[in-house]
Amino acid sequence: MKVDGTDYRTIWLNDDGWSVGIIDQTRLPHVFTTLDLKTLDDAARAIRDMWVRGAPLIGATAAYGMALALRDDASDATLATATDVLLATRPTAINLRWALEEMEKVLSPLDPTERVAAAYKRAAEICDEDVEINAAIGKAGLALIEAIAARKPTGEAVNVLTHCNAGWLATVDWGTATAPIYMAHNAGIPVHVWVDETRPRNQGASLTAWELGHHGVPHTVIVDNAGGHLMQHGKVDLVITGTDRTTATGDVCNKIGTYLKALAAADNSIPFYVGLPSPTIDFRVEDGVAEIPIEERAMEEVSRLTGRTDAGTIATITILPDGSPAANPAFDVTPARLVAGLITERGIVDANREAIAAAFPERV
């Protein structure tokens, strides 16, 4: 995707052939800057402190983190340590574990002298595969938007509501939930996006709005609790979100607040779709509510806000009364019964065990 006319991915190998470049997403939307990752600790901190975020990008960063770790020591001990360090950074997104398992599968049988080159090769492949998967998700989801557009008066926009950031900033390129939107926009279909602010980290207001704006997609930022109101008044045609982990039975774990959007969509007969690459499906989990670990993040994310002042400086302020505690569960689970379909690289799949297994038999 483009930033001020320049093509970017969210992660790349630098010209030196070994260090890794990323966009520092904690500085967006007010400052666009990049960072270099040079060690295992750099990669782990990038994931843990959310310099990078989004399930697919977390996985890609972990893959390169493994390669960086092996540059200093390609022994079995380092391979095991790097896996443990990276796996501990964030518990909910399954792509992290998937990417590390992919790296171990390739690297474990090799002689240590062969591991570094193989690690960089597999990490690059994981990134390229993610781009291909997301492009395929975009094509599958485009058909949904085209069908709605065909029923509307000529020139009237298809209104899509999305929650959190499942855009190209959350992947290597294209995005998951946003890929169909970008493809519709590129095809000349009028499309407008309602962007949930997505408290407490405001990934919708800070990231989704930023990337849509830079690509020229019409959008409006709304407070998290406005979605149901818009649905009641016929201003939402469909909902598309992303997911950090989807169960074998079709339950979907996504940013906190997604479940409420799905409930409102069901009450207003609005289709609720989820864009996801197949590595996000965890075939080891049956019941999302009971089994998926929900990350509890620091209360400071709720109690404090960072933004740009009228003077142009970046400042962080406290918004809660002194002494008031805050809870900060980062994700919730939407039951499969509320999901109209999973938009995958192999087409739109019903959110149930049989359909998912049939679409990805090699993963079962």
Automatic annotation (TrEMBL):
<protein>
    <recommendedName>
        <fullName>Methylthioribose-1-phosphate isomerase</fullName>
        <ecNumber>5.3.1.23</ecNumber>
    </recommendedName>
</protein>
<feature type="binding site">
    <location>
        <position position="203"/>
    </location>
    <ligand>
        <name>substrate</name>
    </ligand>
</feature>
<dbReference type="InterPro" id="IPR037171">
    <property type="entry name" value="NagB/RpiA_transferase-like"/>
</dbReference>
<dbReference type="InterPro" id="IPR027363">
    <property type="entry name" value="M1Pi_N"/>
</dbReference>
<feature type="active site" description="Proton donor">
    <location>
        <position position="244"/>
    </location>
</feature>
<comment type="function">
    <text>Catalyzes the interconversion of methylthioribose-1-phosphate (MTR-1-P) into methylthioribulose-1-phosphate (MTRu-1-P). Also catalyzes the interconversion of 5-deoxyribose 1-phosphate and 5-deoxyribulose 1-phosphate. Part of a bifunctional DHAP-shunt salvage pathway for SAM by-products.</text>
</comment>
<dbReference type="InterPro" id="IPR000649">
    <property type="entry name" value="IF-2B-related"/>
</dbReference>
<feature type="binding site">
    <location>
        <position position="90"/>
    </location>
    <ligand>
        <name>substrate</name>
    </ligand>
</feature>
<dbReference type="InterPro" id="IPR011559">
    <property type="entry name" value="Initiation_fac_2B_a/b/d"/>
</dbReference>
<keyword id="KW-0413">Isomerase</keyword>
<dbReference type="GO" id="GO:0019509">
    <property type="term" value="P:L-methionine salvage from methylthioadenosine"/>
</dbReference>
<keyword id="KW-0486">Methionine biosynthesis</keyword>
<comment type="similarity">
    <text>Belongs to the EIF-2B alpha/beta/delta subunits family. MtnA subfamily.</text>
</comment>
<dbReference type="GO" id="GO:0046523">
    <property type="term" value="F:S-methyl-5-thioribose-1-phosphate isomerase activity"/>
</dbReference>
<dbReference type="InterPro" id="IPR005251">
    <property type="entry name" value="IF-M1Pi"/>
</dbReference>
<feature type="site" description="Transition state stabilizer">
    <location>
        <position position="164"/>
    </location>
</feature>
<dbReference type="InterPro" id="IPR042529">
    <property type="entry name" value="IF_2B-like_C"/>
</dbReference>
<keyword id="KW-0028">Amino-acid biosynthesis</keyword>
<comment type="pathway">
    <text>Amino-acid biosynthesis; L-methionine biosynthesis via salvage pathway; L-methionine from S-methyl-5-thio-alpha-D-ribose 1-phosphate: step 1/6.</text>
</comment>
<feature type="binding site">
    <location>
        <begin position="53"/>
        <end position="55"/>
    </location>
    <ligand>
        <name>substrate</name>
    </ligand>
</feature>
<feature type="binding site">
    <location>
        <begin position="254"/>
        <end position="255"/>
    </location>
    <ligand>
        <name>substrate</name>
    </ligand>
</feature>
<dbReference type="Pfam" id="PF01008">
    <property type="entry name" value="IF-2B"/>
</dbReference>
